[in-house]
Amino acid sequence: MSEASPVTTHGTELSLGADWADATYPVMLVDPSGVITRRNPAAARLFPDAVAGARLADVVPEWLADAQGQLGSPQPSGDGQDGSRTFRGQVGERSFEAHASGRDDGSVMWRLVDVTDRSRAEEALVREQDRFAFVVETSDELLTSLNVDRCMETTARLAAKYLADAASVVVVTASGKLSVATAGRASELTRTTIDADLAAVPGLRQALRGYPPVAPRRMDPSSVPDWLLPRRLTGEVRVALIVPLPGHGMPAGALVLWQHDDGPRVVSADETLLRLFAARAGAALAAARMYAEQVSITAALMRDLLPPQLHRLNGVEFAGGYRASRPSELIGGDFYDVYPGSGQGQETFVVLGDVCGKGLEAAVLTGKIRNTLHALAPMAADHQRILELLNSALVSSHHSLFATLVLGTVARSGDRVQARVTSAGHLPPLIVRTDGEVQEADTHGDLVGVMPTVTATTATVELMPGETCLLYTDGLTEARGGPVGSEEFGEQRLRRALSECAGLGAEATVERIQVLTSDWVGRGNHDDMAVVAITAPRTASAAAGAVQPRAGEGL
Amino acid sequence: MTADPRQALSTGGYAPGTLRQQLWDAVTRRDEDAATTAALTALDHGVDAEVMLLDVVAPVQRQVGTEWAANRISVAQEHAATSINDRVIAAVARHPVSRTEPRFGRVIVACVDGEWHAMPARLLAEVLRLRGWAVDFLGAQVPAPHLVAHIHQTGPDVVALSSSIPTRLPIAHAVITACQAAGAPVLVGGAAFGRDGRYARLLGADAWAPDARAAGDQMAAGIERRRRSPSTYEPVDDLPHLADEEHARVSRSASDLVKRTMTSLDEHFPAMRTYTEQQRQHTAEDIAHIVDFLATALYVDDDDLFTTFITWTADILTARGVPARSLHLGLDLLAGQLPDFPRANRILGAGRRRFDEHLADSGPSPG
Questions:
Q1: Nearest to B152 among A143, A145, A486 (CB)
Q2: Which chain A residue shows the shortest CA-CA distance from B167?
Q3: Sign of the torsion formed by the C-alpha atoms of B347, B348, B350 and B351
């Protein structure tokens, strides 16, 4: 304890001296020549050789000796508020902060503070922050896309960023081929689909088969086929780790991690994180694949339910427009079809209708009616007969299914178009004359599917060149909205709009009506809206391809 | 396609100016055959397909809009002209010179929901196809759920969104965010985003292009996704001013505002009492437009959006012989109904000032 005796040179040091001896942290006083002049018991315990008279550099670790040497240089970093300077280093197993304070006589007082626990906590925090960032980025990126290719790319990119020097993701496609995405830390993403033999890569085959369950395992990098390796790898691959990506009941794919050396980036060091990543990536891939399968099933089922694209047929312009009541659905309870006739006179059969109900269920019912009408199309000349047959089919079916519809039989005659239209409980078609006059076709009848019999009257309509006959559903006229809100679009507005469409042609007329009604409803709710325009082509040249010879033109 | 393709033209008879005149004449005559024949003949004689689309069809289509604004053609004629131009584009796309194998990635081209002007998007789609992209053109007014479903199905490298009407900007914002959340970077274009693309940046688009050529160039250079973490990012972060709820309240009560303004107009504007039902309808629609633009200006917090619309409307009304003075009155009456809306009043005030300056600039006072 003699080293801790009171300092006598300075008054201030006398009082400090008392603290010295009691201080729980090591304190040493070093003179300008680097020789220790005093130390307290804590310092003696830490540095047993640091007795008074010893050179500091001989008895302390190198970093502290270097620190003593640096004190002469005007390096400001690490300066404390009191003019002291701080250094960090290890003494044995523990971490210390060494604070140096210069004194008036040129000597230095070193105080050492044990920061081992704090450093460990800080390191652990940084590690946790890294893990958190990785987990957040993984979730963010993998949750965004339901596209299999994009999910593969994202998985490869994230793995190459966080887990290894490069990564490859392998997925077996529906046709049994291998789809491969690769990414390196610096190299770009690549994607290939190949027809390769998995037997050449046994570890991969097991990971992709998923049975029996396999853990991440190393494989011999020298046995890796070229198609599995990321392009432009800088340096030799020393470690290759195959990680199965678990899916919904079956593997979603496999991840291969590539490493140039045995360094700390090899993820086996943190298996929890690797498993977590594999689980997330596998789930994302499996969801994307399931989505793709569902989409293709839906598309196959929907194909026949979608409203058909209309175009010119037998010298008559046809155009159709459809807007389902729900924006996320493409189909609903309204429908239209056009069947080109093949018989003499080439009559075209047009039908537009509205089935009770809304949404997908109604759309499935329209499918049944449309199929029936398709079968009845050859009888297009006899609307009454078609309605009777359809009615009895609906009445006898186990669905409580009824519909309103308009039938039309259309044929070119010279430069005019003759149409016979029949309404079965539906809004009668409107006819737009060249001068802008709008007329209603004189047809009315019962809706189908309710009563044992139906009756309807048929109107004959003649369209001069440029004139249009418009079939539409009540979704159009009953659309609520407008500038003051909740007002019906109404038949008057429709007639006025049509009047402005005089001579416009089928396609432009349909588009104009759709724009007006869509703007009218704005973001409000509406029913399904369907519209079909039948137009006699306007000019002789525009009617090229008409079945009637030019000689037949004229009155 | 890197060099300026306009220089490729040598034959004077097929210079863009001459072709524009031919197409314009055919379109005004509503002669579809003449229009497509002119285009196809020019392609046969070596005119570049991109030049045909962007230096012939696009300017003619712009001219159609200008003629409509000046009341020289009707809405119906505008539709007819547009539909002929559509046929011309289809014919150009089918011509052998347009046959291009996709060699770049995949892009979806679509119009924002509620946007019917599909022509700019269609031109872009064809130009990108010519430049070697696999293009999915989804057409006019694509609801956001359809667009997102399509992104998941095809995994495009870029989604190109078009909007010409500024009042679709709030919807455009939602669509941009939805596309980005589905992992696709979004390039936007069209008049709605401002001449300098300011609203594109404001609404968080990854890129903006002033025209189809620039869009093609940017796509070739690559469009980076602005990576914003969906865990922490909210679309409203871009628009802190929405916190005052003025936009939400104005757009929610839009029809009431229109109704009350109509009633006030009846009191303050005697000429209204002699209006026919259809004239009243038009007036109500005009006021609804003003409210719609006011709501949009509140959304992006930009006076210019509103003042540009006001001067445009004044010209449209004047061209149709409608007294533009009623517009000024409409703005006054609207402001009177929004006493507790400081931002709305600022915007309406800017609109009135710009309106007065505009009338002073354009000569004799109408009305």
A1: A145
A2: A522
A3: positive
Tell me if B258 and A291 make a contact (CB, 8 A cut-off).
no
Structure-token pair, residue A200: 């050449």
Q: Is A135 on the interface with B (CB under 8 A)?
A: no
d(CA A520, CA A45): 89
Q: Do B288 and A327 touch (CB under 8 A)?
A: no
Q: At A546, is the secondary structure helix, strand, or coil?
A: coil
Does A54 lie at the interface with B, CB-CB under 8 angstroms?
A: no
Phi, psi of A449 (to 5 degrees): 105, 0
Q: Would you call A555 helix, strand, or coil by DSSP?
A: coil
| Closest residue, chain A, to B151 (C-alpha) | A147
Beta-carbon separation of A505 and B74 below 8 A? no
Q: How far is A50 from chain B (nearest CA, A)?
A: 55
Question: pLDDT tens digits for chain A (555 residues)?
Answer: 434 443 333 333 434 455 677 788 899 999 988 899 988 988 989 999 988 899 998 999 999 999 988 886 654 444 455 568 899 999 988 999 999 988 888 889 999 999 999 988 988 888 888 888 888 888 888 988 899 999 999 999 999 888 888 999 999 988 889 999 999 876 678 888 988 888 778 788 888 887 677 788 888 877 788 888 887 776 777 788 899 999 887 889 999 998 887 655 544 457 788 888 999 999 999 999 999 999 999 888 888 889 999 998 989 999 999 998 887 778 889 999 999 976 656 789 999 999 988 888 888 889 989 999 999 999 888 999 999 999 999 888 877 788 999 999 999 999 999 999 999 999 999 999 999 999 999 999 999 999 999 999 999 999 999 999 999 999 999 999 998 888 999 999 999 999 999 888 899 899 999 999 998 998 778 899 999 999 999 864 443 333 333 333 333
Chain B residues touching A328 at Cβ < 8 A = 143, 145-146
Question: Which residues numbered 514-533 in A keep a CB inside 8 Å of some CB on B?
Answer: 514-515, 518, 522
Q: Which residues, 6+ apart, have CB-to-CB distance to A293 below 8 Å?
A: none
A471 near A336, Cβ under 8 Å? yes
Pair B168, B257: CB distance under 8 Å? no
CB contact under 8 A, A139 and B258: no
ipTM: 0.85
Q: Name which of A141, A145, A512 is nearest B79 (Cβ-Cβ).
A: A512
Residue B340 to chain A, least CA–CA distance (Å): 22
B311 touches chain A (CB under 8 A): no
B175 touches chain A (CB under 8 A): no
Q: Which residues of chain A are within 8 Å of residue B155 when distances are taken between CB atoms?
A: 145, 147-150
Query: Most A CBs within 10 Å: which of B27, B29, B30, B289, as the mutation test of the A interface?
Result: B30
Kindly state whether B231 is in contact with chain A, defined as any CB-CB distance less than 8 angstroms: yes
Instruction: Say if CB A366 and CB A360 are below 8 A apart.
Output: no
- Tell me: cis bond preceding A212? Omega within 30 of 0 counts: yes
* Chain A residues lying within 8 Å of B285, measured CB to CB: 482-483
Task: Classify residue B299 by burial, with Cβ atoms within 10 Å: 0-12, 13-18, 19+.
Answer: buried
Q: Which contacts qualify for B213-218: CB closer than 8 Å, 24 or more apart?
A: B213/B50, B213/B54, B213/B127, B215/B124, B215/B127, B215/B128, B215/B160, B215/B187, B215/B189, B216/B1, B216/B124, B216/B127, B216/B128, B216/B131, B218/B187
CA distance readout (Å), A146 to A139, A177, B108, B151, B231: 13, 20, 16, 8, 17
Q: Which phi and psi (to 5°) does residue A240 adopt?
A: -130, 125
